[in-house]
Specification:
316 residues; globular
């Protein structure tokens, strides 16, 4: 499965490199999660970061928002948060004699939904239409959201106290789910000896503008994907649907996300064509949260299923 040896423009490489470098100075020792997060945004998806409290989930989201130079809002999800706190509300204006709509924080280019699973399912669902349709409907009137529009949500492990697991329909709206994990000893020492990460983010210059980001998204969508590579993607999808250890296989939407993220990863890697290695790299973040293990299966974790899928699905 070979392709011509072609490269992206030097300007694109420099622009993407600046983002990765800047965010890496704040979220130290985690180049892979940073690149996966940027991949998701280039593929026009929404990102879910799941991990323990205090490992840098929100820091990564804020650093990306600042480096991309987009208008952003942070919503702290709590058990008493209401849908109107997210999408906005109409308030009666006595002077004008009519209701006036006051937009909520979702009307931003990049929305950081912090600890999304601490809110009730009703409030979580307020993001569904926004994430899928890039619009919200309030009191019968539909309003478009800004472009570009990204949601970066963080959540704590569902076994922790005070969490409400995201339903499958909500999970499927996230193109990728990643985790950060504990830093290694060297990275943790740099964190302990360094300055406050919030101050570093405040001083962070914009590495990309809105127009440049849009151009890079278009470049990612134009990355060449061969027919043989699409065959490989379809074999992966079929494996998930036919394997007895999987209760619910991957949908066509998951397949589209897999191809889009493989394209974006290839762009960051400096190519204008995607390889099987790109698909394999993004498969876990794209597919693991969409799989449902069979309760009777001897492979209870989604990570096990991803490993088996890669091992048992031939590339050619």
């Amino acid at each position: 499965m070979t392709a011509p040896h072609r490269h992206q423009s030097p300007e694109q490489a420099d622009e993407l490199g600046r983002v990765l470098t800047q965010v890496g100075q704040v979220v130290v020792g985690k180049p892979r999660p940073i690149q996966l997060a940027l991949t998701c945004l280039l593929a026009r998806g929404h990102l879910l970061i799941e991990d323990l409290p205090g490992v840098g989930k929100t820091t990564l989201a804020h650093a990306l928002a600042k480096s991309l130079g987009l208008q952003f809002q942070r919503i702290q999800f709590t058990s008493d948060l209401l849908p109107s706190d997210i999408v906005g509300v109409s308030i009666y204006d006595r002077e004008a004699g009519r209701f006036s709509f006051h937009p909520g924080p979702v009307f931003s280019q990049l929305v950081v939904a912090d600890e999304i699973n601490r809110a009730t399912p009703k409030t979580q669902s307020a993001l569904l239409e926004a994430m899928e349709e890039h619009q919200v409907t309030v009191e019968g009137e539909t309003r478009s959201l800004p472009s570009p529009f990204f949601v970066i949500a963080t959540q704590n492990p569902t076994e922790q106290v005070g969490t409400f697991p995201l339903p499958e329909s909500q999970l499927d709206r996230f193109m990728m789910r990643i985790s950060i994990g504990y830093p290694d000893a060297q990275a943790e020492r740099a964190l302990l000896a360094g300055e406050d990460r919030r101050l570093m983010i405040e001083r962070m210059p914009t590495a990309l503008g809105e127009d440049t980001l849009t151009q890079l998204q278009m470049a990612a969508a134009g990355i060449h994907v061969s027919a043989k590579l699409l065959d490989y993607v379809q074999r992966l999808l079929q494996w998930s649907r036919l394997n007895p250890g999987v209760a619910m296989g991957l949908s066509p939407r998951a397949g589209l996300s897999l191809v889009a993220c493989a394209r974006a990863w290839a762009l960051i890697e400096g190519r204008d064509y995607a390889l099987p290695e790109d698909v394999q790299t993004v498969l876990g973040p794209v597919a693991a949260h969409r799989l449902q293990s069979n309760a009777l299966s001897t492979s209870p974790t989604n990570g096990d299923l991803i490993e088996a899928m890669l091992e048992q699905t031939p590339v050619d």
